[in-house]
Amino acid sequence: MELVVEILGAISRWAIPVFLVGVPAVALARGVKIYPAFIEGAKDGLQVGLRIVPYLVAILAAVGAFRGAGAMDRIASWLQPALDPLGIPASVLPLFLVRPLSGSGATGLLAELIRSEGADSLAARIGAVVNGSTETTFYVLAVYFGAVGITKYRHAIPAALAAEAAGIAASIIVVRLVFG
Fold it and tell me: What is d(CA 56, CA 97) in angstroms, rounded to the nearest whole number?
């Protein structure tokens, strides 16, 4: 087991430097003009950024309205009786609700949770693992699908929400197993 940890540590220390040197080295070996290729990629990235701004503004406005209207707290209070028997702290429910909508909002809630309950609390640990192992589902769907012009999400929303629920459940289980 120690050998595996040592190998993973070495990989994590060297992954980015090898990538930053390796990609240009391979491109140079293949005769690619690196600077013009970089500029072309940056230009494409800027165009994508400009296309997604309206979707970004829309999702951020929706998250602000959701939180400002008190809907998040109301939904959390409705769900609390169902989660109490499972041993899930009520204070982490707002994070579960905001995480699919906004990464920055979820990070703010996590910081507030850590400040109010302490970094070693069960709620803070669950919140930290959920924040790191789930995705901002609606943000991703709105921004990325909007950027490429997809308007019919079809199975994307149910699949993404199922993955979100699985990430939350796995986070709770792992934290309960590791920290008791």
Answer: 19
